[in-house]
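[step 3/7] inverse_fold.run input=structure_tokens len=301
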């Protein structure tokens, strides 16, 4: 759990004034939109409609109030930590039940895992994410400076994001791979959780945390990855078939130049070769998947 966008309806001007006192701030109710900060959290109050909105990383907020001045999310952020943050916001400052904190997009659920090699060497081999018959290719994100460290797959309601967390935090020598699901539309989060309305209380239920964890594993497994074998024993025929199976554009080109029966036979062969190799214990992607499993178990505590 990371970036969260929550809002409270019916938050009166009197409640706002009490919140400002608790935060030790001096702010006048003389604007239509009032923006202020508490550590890394951005709070926005709309006096006319009585809506209070809270945005930013709850993970970074937890680290900040715990004395970490770096304000990053390199550490693990567990379910217990998230509940602690919810209680602080609910009881200490805002004085509203966590069921009043309604969740809207954008919402991020992510984790960090230790990679056996440089994270981008793994991430760059993510070819596409397949949902049913829809194939969504990964895109390398251009950095502001230096070499790329991030790749994304963009869908209508959510994105998949992977990057080198050590380099993003400007900490050398740390092979930390960051994996995030970015929910851009609240309807997608509702679907994953099976909930009509999502609140902070909803998110922090054991069974909903597990649903998000299970979905992260399901998504990762549906990513077509060019195998990265420790023993590096692939031959040219295998390499070509792997890329035939995982490359959307190449498939389209082949479909135009082959008969239907030839194309179907080639797809069957390439899928068989891809599946056999990708299930190998030597494939680094399987090592990453096991570490994602292990980390999700830790985060559920």
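[step 3/7] decode complete -> sequence:
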């Amino acid at each position: 759990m990371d970036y969260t966008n929550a809002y409270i309806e019916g938050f009166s001007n009197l409640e706002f004034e009490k919140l400002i006192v608790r935060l030790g701030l001096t702010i006048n109710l003389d604007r239509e939109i009032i923006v202020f900060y508490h550590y890394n959290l951005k709070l926005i109050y709309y006096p006319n409609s009585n809506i209070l909105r809270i945005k930013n990383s709850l993970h970074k907020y937890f680290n900040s109030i715990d004395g970490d001045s770096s304000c990053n999310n390199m550490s693990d952020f567990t379910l217990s930590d998230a509940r602690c943050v919810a209680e602080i916001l609910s009881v200490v400052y805002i004085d509203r039940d966590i069921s009043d904190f309604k969740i809207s997009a954008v919402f991020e659920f992510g984790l960090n895992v230790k990679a056996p090699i440089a994270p981008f060497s793994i991430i760059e081999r993510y070819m596409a994410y397949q949902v049913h018959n829809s194939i969504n290719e990964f895109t390398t994100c251009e950095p502001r400076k230096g070499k790329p460290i991030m790749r994304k797959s963009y869908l209508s309601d959510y994105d998949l994001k992977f990057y080198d967390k050590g380099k993003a935090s400007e900490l050398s020598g740390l092979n930390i791979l960051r994996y995030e699901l970015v929910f851009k539309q609240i309807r997608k989060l509702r679907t994953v959780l099976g909930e009509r309305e999502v609140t902070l209380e909803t998110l922090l239920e054991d069974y909903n945390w597990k649903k998000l964890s299970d979905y992260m594993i399901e998504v990762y497994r549906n990513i077509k990855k060019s195998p990265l074998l420790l023993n590096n024993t692939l031959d040219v025929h295998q390499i070509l078939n792997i890329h035939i199976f995982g490359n959307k554009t190449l498939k389209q080109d082949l479909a135009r130049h082959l008969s239907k029966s030839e194309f179907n036979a080639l797809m069957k062969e390439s899928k068989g070769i891809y599946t056999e190799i990708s299930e190998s214990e030597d494939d680094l992607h399987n090592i990453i998947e096991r570490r994602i499993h292990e980390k999700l178990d830790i985060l559920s505590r």
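[step 4/7] annotate
The chain has a mean pLDDT of 93.
The chain has three domains: 3-104, 108-226+283-299, 236-278.
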